[in-house]
Amino acid sequence: MTKETFINICRTVIKNAVHFISILAFISIFALLFGTKNMLPGIAIQVGMQMFPSCNIIMKPKQFASFIFALYFSCGLIAAFSLSNLWLGCMLNFVMVAIILLFTCEPKELGLQMPFLLCYIFCQVIPVYGQDLVLRLLGLAIGAIFVVVVTLYAWQKRGYGARKMISLPKQIKLCAQKP
Predict the structure, then answer these.
(1) Contact 58/165 with Cβ under 8 angstroms?
(2) Is the Cβ–Cβ distance between 148 and 65 less than 8 Å?
(3) What residues have CB less than 8 Å from 51, skipping those under 6 apart?
């Protein structure tokens, strides 16, 4: 092994270690601020924060930002409502998953649905009520804003959006046309 290869390996290890520590710090701070019952939705937000900034999405950045916020917040809200009644829950679960898949199916190579599906599932796994629900919704809203800010900053820095972007209604039509 050459000295240059060894230095590159050390840099990669250090970079990955710092990245891992920052992920753990975010999740720990999220759990401290919004309660340990809301740690799993915090993990889903962290997944989105790792994923969205590096993806060159075809939607207009401001519309995608509002879309990120709306879906993360809706995951917590709809998950809470779906636990109130079995039949209502079945209908809401179907509608929420369909909405997530409809809005995130293109470009399919990126797997944009994963952070939102994780968030929705995590919000259902540990149901919360009362003040914990308020903390969950607040955490999802603040976390979504954080994801939006990080994503828009990264997109601007990387020059994403320079190519032709589509609107949210066109995104829906594009997804609805795919077999």
Answers:
(1) yes
(2) yes
(3) 110, 111, 112, 114, 115
Give the pLDDT confidence score for residue 16 in this predicted structure: 94
Task: Say whether the peptide bond before residue 107 is cis (omega within 30 degrees of 0).
Answer: yes
Residues near 145 by Cβ (< 8 Å), separated by ≥ 6?
69
**34: which 2 tokens?**
């919004």
Structure tokens at 149: 């800010």
Tell me if the pTM is above 0.70: yes
Residue 146 near residue 45 (C-beta atoms within 8 A): yes
Specify the number of domains making up the chain. 1
Listed in sequence order, the residues at least 6 apart from 60 whose beta carbon sits closer than 8 Å to its beta carbon are 161, 165, 166, 167, 168
What's the domain range around 28? Answer: 3-177
